[in-house]
Amino acid sequence: QVFGCMQKEGLQVTILSTCPVADYKTQESTLTLPSPFLKALKTKEFKEQVCCPLLEQPNIVRDLPAAVLSYCQVWEIPAVLYQCYTDVIKLDTVTIEAFKPLLSSKILKNLVKDVSESTKILKKLLTTNETHNNIYI
């Protein structure tokens, strides 16, 4: 529905997603992998350099990120998915920091004025979010 309201000409899509490192398929032990880490998957129309290694087979992407990337592939929209594999259940600053290399990409570099301040801003956002999500017993 979102894409139905958008002009597809000149559109480029970047998808950010996280999933458990246990879902990552590799011949080496997942215990030795530095967590969190990024992998990318792109449509054939996406011509820019990706900011991390491409996702290897037999790994798969699921749910909404997969649906968006599939839609972009079918409609020939340049798109890239950055999948962060993490060992934590709740989103934290370490996991978000894994996406930091993307801030230097062509499409995202104009969104951030000062990358050095990003860590401080992220910590503030997550701390504020945590206070609103507390359950009092």
From TrEMBL:
<keyword id="KW-0143">Chaperone</keyword>
<dbReference type="InterPro" id="IPR016565">
    <property type="entry name" value="Proteasome_assmbl_chp_1"/>
</dbReference>
<dbReference type="Pfam" id="PF16094">
    <property type="entry name" value="PAC1"/>
</dbReference>
<dbReference type="GO" id="GO:0070628">
    <property type="term" value="F:proteasome binding"/>
</dbReference>
<protein>
    <recommendedName>
        <fullName>Proteasome assembly chaperone 1</fullName>
    </recommendedName>
</protein>
<dbReference type="GO" id="GO:0005783">
    <property type="term" value="C:endoplasmic reticulum"/>
</dbReference>
<dbReference type="GO" id="GO:0000502">
    <property type="term" value="C:proteasome complex"/>
</dbReference>
<dbReference type="GO" id="GO:0080129">
    <property type="term" value="P:proteasome core complex assembly"/>
</dbReference>
<comment type="similarity">
    <text>Belongs to the PSMG1 family.</text>
</comment>
<keyword id="KW-0647">Proteasome</keyword>
